[in-house]
Specification:
Two copies of one chain form a homodimer. By secondary structure, chain A is α/β, with parallel strands linked by helices. Chain A is about 40% helix and about 15% strand. Chain A binds a DNA duplex (30 and 30 nucleotides) through helix 2 and helix 4.
Chain lengths: ~375, ~375
Amino acid sequence: MAARAPGTRPTVESVARHARVSRQTVSNALNAPQRVRPDTLSRVLASIEQLGYRPNSAARNLRTQSTRLLGCRLLPSLQMGTGGVLDRFLHALCDAARDRGYDVLSFAAPTDDAELDVIDDLLRRTAVDAYVISGTHHVDPRPGWLAARGAPFVAFGRPWGEPDATHSWVDVDGAAGTAAVVEHLVAQGHRRIAFVGWPEGSGVGDDRYAGWLRATAAHRLPTRGLVRRSEDGIAAGAALTGRLLDLAQPPTAVVCVSDVMALGALRALEDRNLRAGSEVAVTGFDDSPLTTVVRPGLTSVRQPLEAVAERVIEVLLDHLSGSRTDPARVLLDPALVVRDSSDRGGSPVRAAATRPRALSTTPRVRSDRR
Amino acid sequence: MAARAPGTRPTVESVARHARVSRQTVSNALNAPQRVRPDTLSRVLASIEQLGYRPNSAARNLRTQSTRLLGCRLLPSLQMGTGGVLDRFLHALCDAARDRGYDVLSFAAPTDDAELDVIDDLLRRTAVDAYVISGTHHVDPRPGWLAARGAPFVAFGRPWGEPDATHSWVDVDGAAGTAAVVEHLVAQGHRRIAFVGWPEGSGVGDDRYAGWLRATAAHRLPTRGLVRRSEDGIAAGAALTGRLLDLAQPPTAVVCVSDVMALGALRALEDRNLRAGSEVAVTGFDDSPLTTVVRPGLTSVRQPLEAVAERVIEVLLDHLSGSRTDPARVLLDPALVVRDSSDRGGSPVRAAATRPRALSTTPRVRSDRR
DNA sequence: ACTAGCGATTTGATCGTTCATCAGACAGAC
DNA sequence: GTCTGTCTGATGAACGATCAAATCGCTAGT
């Protein structure tokens, strides 16, 4: 009995013939094994194995009206800013998706509107089942647009400035991150702790600022004149930090809203012959590759992107399966990674401190409030 | 005449009814417009526009036995090494693919073997039409495996160590890059130009070394004792450069095989209170974000990844369409980006030199030899 | 006037899978 | 012994597009 012609892909038909059952039984063996008697099941599975059969996804997609593909935009990672973060996220997303039987269709788009054009195309062609949008920001057109079309999606990032948004999102609690940084600095004996941030109005930046504000208030630390803001950049970070250091009562620690800003801060110290870590502490945010490239190693806050990706996938699939109708709002805790730039400890134990120490390696879920 | 039920996606059928033609004419209007009479065509296109119709990709995929998807692995961009390069490449690949009507399915895989497992899955399911593999290296199992399965693919990277490989590839001429670096340094008056590289046996590393060797030989420059090798890393780059600087006749320029190595070299200079650029020139490779993060800005070699991606797609589609049966071998020239780390010029014109100057911005195609 | 030939359009079949439905076997209850 | 219910497996139809081939209308050649 010829299993199949050489050069031809096995189909459900050829497997059925090989196992002496019908098409549907082969289909059941894969999609609803409990419906098939054990001995039949093993026979069918053996044939499947032997012929190397996998269901043709185009046919399955057509019949089930789903593609098992998730769309995700590749952000323009030109700058170091958050580029590394979103690349890591995409990686984690692909992993998490594949674990659940989905794949990721990635595309590039220079602007939000261009992204919506692509999504519109994919949506009309029913080329993907759902979307993941990342890098949400104030007056973001995407959530509303997607919701209006009834397209299933989950956002990595809160709907900044739209507290009554009804879509699902997963985000990292930036405020908790900066608060943890401040706690760490306080434990190191710092009391004048400055904040170098972005201009007000950026959701992410304001969130990180809020954490600094909350923690300094909790410890009754001085804040007057210790907040400086500017657009992201090394030069900007250096300039802002420079002005802080030139104060009559300069801070002994500088909490930066990003690793890039922190790099600028380190330069400002260098220019004044101040030693980072032992004399003035500097911290960043995002735990980008930058942190291990500078001297001293930069203390930073690491986003649990793997966990974010897993939650995003979980929520998305719940929506697709219909088992969830209400929006999920998930906030995860980031992890503090301490390096020498915030370590006042004596040099003898420097080697030990160099090794990144994650204060909370397994980020716990903060909330899933409705 | 009801165009379509609300909430229902338009199909070729509903468009046909709306335009008072048959299914096939609608199909032809999209896939073979020259077969349709102009007035019919415009009527059909108007209906398509009006109903917002796009062919269901699952149905089209099933019928045409092609998915218009290309598979591409997301490399573990943990380290800064070449991570940035491959992220940029993926971005460019998505762009180039979309311009030609294709999309990219990206997936993560920790090892080559894991990648082959995923590819095997995608292949059996006929979920993608072709693959792009990147980061080729010595004894790479992937090209042979793919070729044996008859899967269409193109590699970004030469088949190192396998001169008689029969698959198509596109790569960047690393030797031309380091040679251009040497030319630039010679023009700046340097004569003792060292090379800090990776251990022999890495295709990419050996290629870049070859360019240095060729160019130094062409100018009859000394090379004795001026080559140091080690695995990639900041510390390694610093150590190797340190030993070079401690020579009786130290080099005045250090050409590094990577930006990471170059960063180490800059540190070695710093530790010896030597000024990079004005006293000792340092250059890297890959034009990663690192180059603009260090002080002084690091001269580097930029790979034309957009051009690489375009050529990869072009070759791939030629293979898919059957218009190409012989393997394509495309080598593109990289571009030198000069920054302060290799600039001996006086400080008055520093501002001008700070602006990156691409010596050959539009990389020309070197060859397409068979 | 008749038909060959060509271009424009339509019709029937097909891609490979899963859904909905139905037939048969087999056990237990009366 | 028959009837009912459950479990297993089989059959026809459908998903929405394109391919192959047939049909129709028209012009031009004889």
